[in-house]
User: What shape does this take?
Amino acid sequence: MTMDAIKPARRTERIQYAVRDVVLVARQAKAAGRELLYLNIGDPNQFDFVTPPHIVDAICRAMRDNHTGYAPSEGLPVALEAIRAQAARNGIRAVRDAFVGNGGSECIEICLSALADEGDDVLLPWPGYPLYSAVLNKLGVVENPYFLDESNGWQPDPADLEARLTPRTRALVIINPNNPTGSVCERRTLEALVEFAARHKLVILCDEIYDRLVLDDRLPHVSLASLTDEVPVLTFNGMSKAFLGPGLRMGWCVVSGPEQRVRPLVDAIHKFLRARLCANLPVQYGIVPALEGDQSHVATVVAKLRARRQITVEMLNAIPGVSCVAPAGAFYAFPRLEIEEPDEAWVKRLILETGVVVVHGSGFGQRPGTAHFRVVFLPPEETLRRAFAAIGDFMQQSRIARVS
Ligand code: PLP
Assistant: This one.
């Protein structure tokens, strides 16, 4: 570093976000003239999915009606009412608060900031969505990983959780359906997690942003907070996934649990909500139509995703050296690789040599000694077929190169 170069804060050294980091390698491949097949980002609108028009219309109308000022910090009252009504339909009884944020991401960051001190720890699923690690690292809160069990459809393993608990553990994060594995928690697993949290006085952060995108009829989505009035639960959802509007940046949180236990946390959350003024106002006018208007787009999305999941699982499992647990929800699969190099190096070679952009498993956390990659199966069937055929050829060539 030269004498007058600005020295960034030390906390930035711990921040990584693999999903966007691979984009730098993809740019390199593109500059070298490769056609890119993007299977790396969970954005439906990059493919053949559009935000339902009744949501878009409501937002446009709000802007034309001059609803472009500041909003109440916690959110527009009619939007919060709709969020509470949806929580009731999901079976959540002990609702104590609801608020909106600029994406589920902001709600998650505010809740963790309001809950945990430096040196506390939070149980995070591995594999799991890397936002949680990034936020904890920023706050100086310790990331305490628990492993999802690949041999059991990537379900959380309550025994593993028990072994990881420390005196400073404050909270348990559950992502259901999960990103990056696409797993959906069984009801009895959720019950065991609630019981674990109750016994150890933990707060549960339950990320249900993919709750409507369940692809396996045998695993209907159960909202974890519907199983308990006793354990404090922060349930996250938003417009990004099932409502096909990730760029709208609108998410929300429902706080449930015993009033006396959750009140101080709710008050602390509201300090942060006020400090950032408010969330995007016009988009809040899209929440009532999203939650209470026409839902027919969901069935269309789920039907497309089921067909794409089938191609993904069949083609990946046909490749020697690759095995893929069938995802039950969301639009991700997390296949395992038998390779002799770190998965990050494998992914980099894959992108540069084939143009297929996926994300290395180590970016989401995985058991030591295993290697995976995440694929997004949002692209149309033809793109998926080409991408998986290219991955098959790439694996075969790597094997030939190793043998010769
Ligand atoms: N939670 C999970 C599990 C996600 O996969 C994502 C985005 O991919 C988010 C939260 C971010 O949601 P938002 O776009 O509402 O900030």
Observations:
- The first strand starts at residue 37 and ends at 38.
